[in-house]
């Protein structure tokens, strides 16, 4: 057993991680010489991709991790080698780039600095590292990626469409709403070495080669961007699908978001011509290449079985129109029509998709049959979600099957009123009697229940008649938080399902009604929380590119992105997504590229703020603290809450200037720093003087929780005012019987501000409230996702009679960030978590909590358990990370590390390893 003196002597020399090993009997004075041959692992490029084709970045960023099994704790240097070819039997040749040995602990987002990379190029790379003792690792396994078509010049085809849909022919909405079927036959007589399909659409596509669906799990491709400025392209490896001899490349095409409407404006739907652009490149063993592109030689028809397709209204399928073998060589297309073509617009950017597409991720079975009457049945899947159903049931020829969707039952009855003008209904007309199988292709739905009518009335419904195919952008969702409280665990699940449901190529506000837009305010309050529960960095980076595309010449940011004409004025708290999201992503990843990409947009938004202010007080329009509970009903628009609009706008003005200033410092934009610093101080001063009296009471309007939350969260009070503001906030919460009174803008700030005030016990109380307004209120009323309103629904009364009652809205899921940064206590001290603070908030509402956060260095894990006043705490720190641990108040004599008693030691330099503490708390709540 180590003496206390030797403990501190060894700790000073080797660090506390080394001491943990010693306490376990596994240390020696020569530990610095331990073998470190383990290679780096988890090689990624860009925002977290590996071994992929169709990559978008000509100067990629490289990331890796130090293996958990390595004896080292820190990386002191790295070397990256990049090659244009790779042969496992030969020496790796770094003909594109060799970084040489670079002295740096950086293991993520290292920018490529070699020879120029070009479209289609396949790139191989590897990395090795050196540890704190300057001992090198083995080379990693070789990772690879392949670039897509990076610029317009690489595309040799044309946009194509059925001529009846061309605008010159004055097509009706019905014609444009009818999906197109397109095909091209070609020969391939040589030995195929490789085949790639580059493809996109103005609209939505499904592609086939020789009858085989390409990427059958992909849905709603290519996705949604500002179509007049940029369309994403996809790359598929189709080497195994090209035959020797005759072949067919085919696709069906629908309007999707491109020719869709927004909100209830049905007259705007199906007014643009859906078009396809494709380029199949076949590389042969003899070094030659054959290209099949979309051009005048393609054939088309609109006489296929999908008779109608709409994002909001669903799909109509008529089995009478089925075209057997239309996408194979065994088909006579003599009655098909030559397509119309259009040249590429050089102002319209075609860029490889930078994150994975929407996909069918999982299939759910019904948990019950709710009701069956005649030829109508209602299935309950037990979970609100997004996607499409797949049905397999008996049908009668000529008897139409109808499929409707609902989020919840209203007083026991199937209810669709909250979908508003979105018809959200699928129809299937069978041509024969018997079992039919159907899955919609060019629509999607938000739902928990489906109602199917029109099936064979002689049949008895079974739960295997339907599946729910859950769809969302394909990313990893972590199961990384659990506790001793079942309702808190349900809330964590609800947040994740809200995320999955609304991360549908863009961050939707809701997935079911006639809206489904990328609202910027919803996005900015949830972005950080989403990063804690899912690997969504690429998702956010891609959407921010669309925000940049849609930024107004004034610097204003639209209320929703992609923007379509509906509400055309910017709002504070919404447009501030332009500054808040890039900064939060930077803090969570450490990748300064996200700041560099968005800095010009951030500057533009600050200038727009300035244009809407006088004497540094902003009067920008705002949606306010949206859907605050118990608003002043006499107000002009009570949905916007009671917090003074100019207070909100000026607070966000200050916040955006501050974050742009911080960004300028990170990017060394020296010419901007002084002016931004002066502007920030002026706005901060104006905020204090214009909205608060000397005693910190508000000068006009209502004193709300949010008015103080904004000031405290954005650090807009001097130190002498901060305590007073905290006291006033606590008073307002007490006046509300310890309930929140916050909407979209205030709620995300609540937990962190209260923790900063030393009142995590109050966060727990608010979090565990059962009555309205609270998170558990929704759970008590059957919620399986987070809601738009705090009282959108009740089991007793059904849907709230007020409008906007989405039961699948992620904004209030922002509380999830506190599960990780509060309950578990994991916060970055430096961008990217290379230095981390661990300060778990222990409360009487829980006896156990555990979870992790995946940082660029590795997984940080925390778990704690209380029994009475005794606490057991486990902390795991990944390689290349330094942690500062702040323990809850405890009796010093009770503290043990790895079952060894100690009265005092420093906890500000924890290195990689596992630590097990136990102690007797002096208080069981912080």
UniProtKB/TrEMBL annotation:
It catalyses: Hydrolysis of terminal non-reducing alpha-L-rhamnose residues in alpha-L-rhamnosides. Its EC number is 3.2.1.40. Keywords: Hydrolase. SUPFAM superfamilies: Six-hairpin glycosidases. Gene3D superfamilies: 1.50.10.10, Galactose-binding domain-like (2.60.120.260), Immunoglobulins (2.60.40.10), Maltose phosphorylase, domain 3 (2.60.420.10). Residues 825-894 form the Alpha-L-rhamnosidase C-terminal domain. GO terms for biological process: carbohydrate metabolic process. Residues 480-822 form the Alpha-L-rhamnosidase six-hairpin glycosidase domain. One of its GO terms (molecular function) is alpha-L-rhamnosidase activity. Residues 374-469 form the Alpha-L-rhamnosidase concanavalin-like domain. Residues 190-361 form the Bacterial alpha-L-rhamnosidase N-terminal domain. This is alpha-L-rhamnosidase. It comes from Catenovulum maritimum.
């Amino acid at each position: 057993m180590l003496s206390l003196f030797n403990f501190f002597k060894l700790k000073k020399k080797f660090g506390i991680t080394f001491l943990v090993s010693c306490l376990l009997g596994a240390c020696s004075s020569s530990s610095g010489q331990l073998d470190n041959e383990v290679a780096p692992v988890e090689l990624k490029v860009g925002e977290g991709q590996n071994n992929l084709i169709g990559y978008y970045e000509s100067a990629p960023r490289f990331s890796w991790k130090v293996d958990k099994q390595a004896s080292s704790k820190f990386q002191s240097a790295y070397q990256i080698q990049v090659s244009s070819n790779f042969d496992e039997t030969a020496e790796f040749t770094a003909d594109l780039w060799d970084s040489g040995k670079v002295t740096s602990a950086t293991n993520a987002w290292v920018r490529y600095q070699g020879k120029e990379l070009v479209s289609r190029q396949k790139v191989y790379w590897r990395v090795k590292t050196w540890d704190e003792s300057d001992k090198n690792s083995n080379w990693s396994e070789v990772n690879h990626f392949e670039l897509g078509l990076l610029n317009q010049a690489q595309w040799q085809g044309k946009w194509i469409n059925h001529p009846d849909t061309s605008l010159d022919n004055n097509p009706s909405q019905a014609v444009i709403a009818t999906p197109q079927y397109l095909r091209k036959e070609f020969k391939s007589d040589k030995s195929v070495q490789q085949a790639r399909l580059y493809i996109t659409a103005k609209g939505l596509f499904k592609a086939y080669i020789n009858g085989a669906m390409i990427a059958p799990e992909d849905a709603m491709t290519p996705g949604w961007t500002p179509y007049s400025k940029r369309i994403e392209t996809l790359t598929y490896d189709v080497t195994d699908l090209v035959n020797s001899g005759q072949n067919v490349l085919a696709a069906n095409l629908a309007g999707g978001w491109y020719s869709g409407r927004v909100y209830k404006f049905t007259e705007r739907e199906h007014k643009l011509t859906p078009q396809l652009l494709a380029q199949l490149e076949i590389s042969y063993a003899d070094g030659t290449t054959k290209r099949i592109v979309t051009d005048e030689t393609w054939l088309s028809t609109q006489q296929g079985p999908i008779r109608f397709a709409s994002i909001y209204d669903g799909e109509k399928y008529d089995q009478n129109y089925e075209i057997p073998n239309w996408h194979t060589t065994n088909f006579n297309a003599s009655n098909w029509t030559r397509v119309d073509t259009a040249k590429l617009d050089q102002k319209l950017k075609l860029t490889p998709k930078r994150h994975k597409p929407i996909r069918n991720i999982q299939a759910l079975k019904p948990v019950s049959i709710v009701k069956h009457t005649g030829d109508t049945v209602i299935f309950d899947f037990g979970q609100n979600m997004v996607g499409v159903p797949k049905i397999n049931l008996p049908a009668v020829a000529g008897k139409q099957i109808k499929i409707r969707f609902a989020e919840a039952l209203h007083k026991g009855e199937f209810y669709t009123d909250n979908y508003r003008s979105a018809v959200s209904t699928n129809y299937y007309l069978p041509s024969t009697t018997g079992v039919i199988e159907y899955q919609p292709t060019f629509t999607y739905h938000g739902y928990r229940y489906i109602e199917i009518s029109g099936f064979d009335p002689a049949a008895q419904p079974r739960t295997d008649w339907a599946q729910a195919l859950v769809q969302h952008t394909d990313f990893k969702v972590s199961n990384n938080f659990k506790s001793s409280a079942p309702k808190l665990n349900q809330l964590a699940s609800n947040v994740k399902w809200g995320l999955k449901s609304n991360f549908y190529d863009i961050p939707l506000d809701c997935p079911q009604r006639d809206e489904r837009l990328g609202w910027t305010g919803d996005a900015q309050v949830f972005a950080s929380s989403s990063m804690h529960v899912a690997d969504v960095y690429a998702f956010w980076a891609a959407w921010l590119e669309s925000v940049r595309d849609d930024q107004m010449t004034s610097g204003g940011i639209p209320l929703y992105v992609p923007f379509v004409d509906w509400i055309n004025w910017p709002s504070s708290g919404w447009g501030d997504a332009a500054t808040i999201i890039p900064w939060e992503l930077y803090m969570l990843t450490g990748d300064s590229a996200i700041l560099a990409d968005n800095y010009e947009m951030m500057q533009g938004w600050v200038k727009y703020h300035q244009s809407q202010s006088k004497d540094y007080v902003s009067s920008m329009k705002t949606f306010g603290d949206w859907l605050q509970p118990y608003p002043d009903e006499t107000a002009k628009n009570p949905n916007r809450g009671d917090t003074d609009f100019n207070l909100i706008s000026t607070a966000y003005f200050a916040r955006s200037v501050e974050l742009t200033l911080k960004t300028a410092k990170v990017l060394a934009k020296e010419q901007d720093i002084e002016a931004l610093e002066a502007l920030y101080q002026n706005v901060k001063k104006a905020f204090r003087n214009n909205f608060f009296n000397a005693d910190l009471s508000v000068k006009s309007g209502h004193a709300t929780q949010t008015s103080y939350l904004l000031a405290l969260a954005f650090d807009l009070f001097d130190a002498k005012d901060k305590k007073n503001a905290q006291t006033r906030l606590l008073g307002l919460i007490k006046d509300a019987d310890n309930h929140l009174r916050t909407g979209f803008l205030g709620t995300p700030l609540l937990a962190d501000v209260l923790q900063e005030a030393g009142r995590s016990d109050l966060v727990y109380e608010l979090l565990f409230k059962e009555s309205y307004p609270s998170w558990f209120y929704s759970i008590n009323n059957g919620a399986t996702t987070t809601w738009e309103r705090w009282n959108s629904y009740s089991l007793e009364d059904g849907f709230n009679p007020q409008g906007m009652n989405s039961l699948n809205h992620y904004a209030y899921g922002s509380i999830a960030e506190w599960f990780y940064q509060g309950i578990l206590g994991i916060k970055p001290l430096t961008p990217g978590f290379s230095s981390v603070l661990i300060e778990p908030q222990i409360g009487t509402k829980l006896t156990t909590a555990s979870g992790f956060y995946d940082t660029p260095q590795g997984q940080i894990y925390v778990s704690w358990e209380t029994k009475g006043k005794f606490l057991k705490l486990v902390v795991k720190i990944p390689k290349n990370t330094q942690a500062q641990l702040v323990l809850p108040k405890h009796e010093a004599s009770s503290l043990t590390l790895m079952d060894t008693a100690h009265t005092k030691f420093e906890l500000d330099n924890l290195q990689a390893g596992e630590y097990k503490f136990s102690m007797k708390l002096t208080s069981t709540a912080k």
